[in-house]
Each structure stands twice: as C-alpha cells, then as structure tokens.
Specification:
heterodimer; A: alpha/beta; 11 helices; B: alpha+beta; 5-stranded mixed sheet; rod-shaped
C-alpha cells in the first residue's frame, strides 16, 4: 500500500504479538518494525492476558493454535474488559472451523501467516481503524456459509443474508483483489468497500445461520 | 414412602419360599432410586438389620412349627439364611456407591455385584457369598439324602442355582476386572495402530521432505517447491476428507493447482465455494483453468497466483488472477496455442466462455464460465458460434 501518510497515521500503531513460536514472533517483529511499534509479545495464554492488560496495545496479532486454549482463550478473557483493543487472527490453519470460531469470538479479521509484510501492515492499520480484514479463503468460507439455499430457513434476514453488493465484494476478495482494486472494479470508494466488509463481519459474528452454528458446534465452540 | 413397612412386609413374605427376597430384589432393581433429600444419608447401621433378621427368623420358625412337613421347613430356613447373607451384602454396599458407575446406567444391580471396592466390603462379600455357597451345597445334600420325589428334584435344582449364585457373587469382581483389562488392552492396540500410521506418514513424507530441503538448501526455488508440496499434503491429511479428483469439481481443481505448484514452484491460493459432480464438461473447465494457471506461472513472473471458483445454480465460474507482468492481448499471435486453443477454444467447444483481461504491468485475470445444466449447453454453443 503506497497511500500517503496522513495525519491520523502519523502516530505509530502499537502492536502486540501472541504466538507460541519464538521464531515466528521474531520474524514478524523484524518485518513490521518499519511500519508499527511492536510493544510486547507473549507465548502463552496467561502471559498474553496479563501483558495485554498492562500495555494496552492498539492491535493484538493473535495465533489461532496455542497449547493452552489458543487465541480463543485470549479473546474470551480480553473482549469484555478491554473492548478498545482490536484483535487480528493470524494462523497457518485455513480450516473453516478455526477461523469462524475466532471471528465469532470477536476478532476483527483473519490472515494467513504467509501474508507479505506490507499486506500485514495494511491489515493491522485497517483493523486498528475499526474495519475488518478477510483473507481470500475466509471470504470463500463466508460466501459458502451464507450461500442462499432454498432449504435453509432464514430467521433474521438482516443478519442471515448478504446483500448482493456484499456478495460481490466478497467474491472479489476471494479472487485475490485488494481493497483498492475492488473499489476500482465496482466504481465505489475504498471506504465503501471497508463498510461492506465490516457489515459482513458483523453478520458473521451475530448471525445464527445453520452452517455457522454447525461449524461452531462441531468444534464445541458454543 | 413407608420404607419400614415395605421392608417388614417383604421380610414376612420371605418366609414363604423366599418370595420376599425375590420381590425385594426385583423392586430394587426396577424401581427408580429415590431422589436424595438434603438431609445427609445416615450411615448404614448394622443394628437396624437385626429386627429384620429376627422377624424373618420368627416367620420361618412359625412356619416350621405350623407345617408338619419337615422338608418345607428346611427350605424356609435355608432361604432365610441365604436372605440374611444377601442382605448383608446389599446393606454393606455404601449408599453413595449406589449411584453406580456411569458405565452401567441401565444395570445398577450388575454394578452392585461386580463393583471393585474396599477391603472391608470385600470381606463382607466373601462371607455373604460363602454363606450362599454353603447353603446351596448343604441344601442339595439335604434334599438328595432321602430317596427323591419330584419336589425334591426341583428343590435340588433350586439349591444348585443358589450355589451357583454364591460362586458368581464371589467371582464376579475377578471376572469383571479381567473383562476390563481385555477392553483396555484392545483400546490400547487401536491407539497404537493409529500412532503407527501417523509415524509412518511423518516418516515417509515429512522427514523425507526435510532431508531434501537440507540437501537443496542452496536452491531457493526447489526449497519453496518442496515446502509447499509438503504443506499441501499435510493440510489434506489433517483437514480434508479425501475426495476423488475424477468425481468432484473442487478436488479436481485443487489437484490441478497442486500440479502447477509442484511443476513451477509457485503458490496457488485456491478458494472454492460450493462443489459439484465432475463430468467431461466440468473436466474441460478444470483443464482450461489449469492452462491459465500454467500461463500465469510461466509468464507472469510472480510467486502467488489466485484461483477462485464458485459453483452456482446456473453456472460454474473460475477466476485465475495474478499481479504479474501482464500482456497486451492484441500482441498474442493467433498461433499461440496456450491461450487460443487450450483456454478460449476449449471453453467454447463445451458451451462456456473465456474472457481474458490483461494489460502490460497490471497483471492478468482469466475468467471462465460454464453453464450448469445440459439444456443451457446447447444454448451456449449456439451463441458461441
């Protein structure tokens, strides 16, 4: 992203890393050093909970899989007490259940660990601004989960269905388009793209659609 | 519930050829246990047993006096002794233990007989069982001593059964433990088998790949290719039920992507929404998508290519996109088989469409669409002409 550095971005974002692999933390720290301030890191759930509460970062990069409960345990512990801290899930796993589980627990986005440093920095900024970040695969999951099937009853149309525009945006995300490219393709502003994605995130978190509940139930997340 | 009354009635009934004992056992096994009240359960008091025993004995004695028939009296006595033995066992079983193991929710009586418990209980079990066995044997001998009539044969059988019951009570924990051990052993074997399978997979694939990576560590492309291939195979193994690429659209696309990854050392971000059966038209779509991936891998000069496919009611669509070099469509010679024949031509032959968007320096996107049903194939063909 080569957007000019505007005023609100002049304050460097503070980022906290939670991952049980020290090598990975070191790598991310080195990659992100130019873009944000990495203010702390933790390798266990308990460590993460106490340190995040102490340093109050803007964004927490959260590993999905950790020995003692994983990212979900951190989210469950922090969401109520520190609503201003935003969480971005980061994982090698692309399994639908893991991703959906974390998003529903309150993470603002999900990216895979193979993401490039620039893209990761952009994703962090987006999450810090209160927007959502979807990897192509997560966009695919959501399209799949919200597919309009005639046999699935819709309890709450506001939450259980995607609008055509949201569907289009998700399709482009799944096709590997960046937000800027989506905006250009659909003749809308980047801000509008962000709004659409944030709405999808809200639906993903609030909806009780059968597929989402099933995913969650399969993994005993509910 | 007048527990005491019921118990007394049953003890009195005991005198009549053990009817009370049978009823008690049957009720106890069949009727649901009372919901515990909040007063703590009193400890089992042996003194409480005495009146029942006394009543039982009294009834039996009374019966023996009243009836002139000696044999019936003896039987009554023996049953009374058996009842006392059994009563000791039941009573001694700790009230809390009557919650029984969760393994046997339908058979509380079984758990009572087979439960392994502390030494004290074991002694009582042994005594009770011993009494049963002894009674059985004595009874059999006593009944058979006078040359038999039909009733004495029946009595003999009953006593033999009583004897067997005693043996069962004594031996049950042993048998149960053996059964449990067998079960545990079998579970262990299954676990061991799974572990061996996992170990074999890791050995055949992961260790192999790691060795290859070490040997090729100078060749970054090769290392990437190896790592990516291993990642893919582990992912499949962990998360995906195996589907045959010849049968399912998604599996076929993923296989095509994997082949391109392996051959050209790039990574293909594959996202497939929905799935469908494979037929030759769908196979053609997959082949065209594969060709588009190959083109991207060879000409775009990038590490990552996006592959997105969606199965909708009316049509299947596939998008192959890279952010690479791109090209001017008018520059591509008519003879270049890759794009013209393998992608556009192939899609048209099968009633679909191919659209290529590209500009130098701006990447390339190939969009393939195929109408879903047979009917629309014909229509598609006509419009393609």
């Amino acid at each position: 992203m080569t957007e000019p550095v505007v005023d609100q971005a002049s304050r460097r974002l503070t980022v906290f890393l939670v991952d049980d692999h020290a090598m990975f933390r070191a790598g991310v720290r080195a990659e992100l050093g130019a873009h944000v301030d990495v203010v702390g890191e933790a390798s266990t759930v308990a460590e993460a909970i106490s340190k995040i509460a102490a340093v109050q970062p803007d964004v927490v990069l959260l590993d999905v899989h950790m020995p003692d409960g994983g990212g979900r345990a951190v989210l469950d512990a922090m969401r109520r007490t520190h609503p201003q801290v935003r969480f971005l899930a980061l994982s090698v796993s692309d399994a639908a259940e893991d991703v959906i589980g974390l998003i529903r627990a309150g993470a603002r986005g999900y990216v895979t660990k193979t993401i490039s440093p620039d893209e990761l920095a952009a994703a962090i900024r987006r999450v810090a601004d209160g927007d959502a970040v979807f990897s192509p695969r997560l966009a695919g999951f959501v399209l799949d989960a919200f597919a309009s099937r005639p046999d699935v009853p819709v309890a709450d149309p506001e939450l259980d269905q995607l609008t055509n525009r949201e569907r289009e945006v998700l399709r482009l995300l799944a096709r590997g388009y960046a937000y800027k490219e989506i905006a250009k393709e659909l003749y809308i502003s980047i801000k509008t793209v962000e709004t659409h994605v944030s709405n999808v995130l809200r639906k993903l978190q609030m909806s009780n659609r059968y597929e989402l509940s099933r995913w969650a139930a399969d993994r005993r997340l509910v | 519930m007048p527990v005491l009354g019921v118990r007394i009635a049953l003890v009195v009934l005991l005198g009549f050829n053990g009817l009370g004992l049978l009823l008690y056992a049957a009720f106890w096994a069949v009727l649901p246990q009372q919901i515990p009240t909040d007063t703590p359960a009193p400890r089992r008091d042996f003194a409480a047993l005495l009146p029942f025993g006394a009543i039982g004995l009294g009834v039996v004695l009374l019966q023996a006096l009243v009836s002139r028939d000696n044999l019936a009296g003896t039987v009554g006595w023996l049953i009374a002794v058996v009842a006392v033995g059994a009563g000791i066992i039941w009573h001694e079983s700790d009230p809390t233990r009557r919650a029984w193991s969760t393994d046997l929710p339908q058979t509380p009586w079984l758990a009572a007989v087979v439960a392994e418990s502390d030494r004290r209980f074991f002694v009582f079990r042994f005594i009770g069982g011993g009494v049963l066995v002894a009674t059985g044997i004595i009874g059999v001998v006593a009944v058979y001593a006078p040359p038999g009539s039909l009733t004495s044969v029946v009595n003999g059988v009953i006593f033999a059964l009583v004897g067997l019951l005693g043996v069962g009570v004594v031996a049950a924990p042993l048998i149960w433990r053996m059964f449990n051990q067998l079960r545990a052993e079998r579970e262990g074997r299954i676990r061991e088998q799974e572990r061996a399978e996992l170990a074999a997979m890791i050995h055949d694939q992961v260790l192999h790949t790691l060795a290859l990576i070490q040997r090729n560590s100078a060749d970054i492309k090769e290392v990437q290719r190896l790592a990516r291939g291993q990642e893919r195979s582990l992912r499949n193994w962990l998360y995906k039920p195996a589907a045959s690429p010849t049968e399912r659209f998604a599996a076929a696309l993923e296989q095509a992507a994997a082949e391109v990854e392996d051959t050209y050392a790039i990574s293909v971000e594959t996202v497939v929404v929905g799935d469908t059966e494979c037929d030759d038209r769908v196979a053609a779509l997959v082949a065209a998508a594969r060709e588009a991936l190959v083109n991207a891998a060879r000409h775009a000069g990038v590490q990552t290519v996006s592959l997105y496919a969606e199965v909708e009611e009316e049509e299947l669509s596939v998008f192959v996109r890279d952010r690479g070099a791109g090209f001017d469509l008018s520059d591509v010679e008519e003879s270049r088989h890759g794009v013209r024949g393998s992608i556009i031509g192939r899609m048209q032959r099968h009633g679909g469409r191919a659209e290529i968007r590209s500009a130098p320096g701006d990447g390339t996107e190939v969009r393939l669409t195929l109408p879903a049903s047979r009917d629309s194939v014909v229509a598609g063909k006509e419009t393609a002409r």
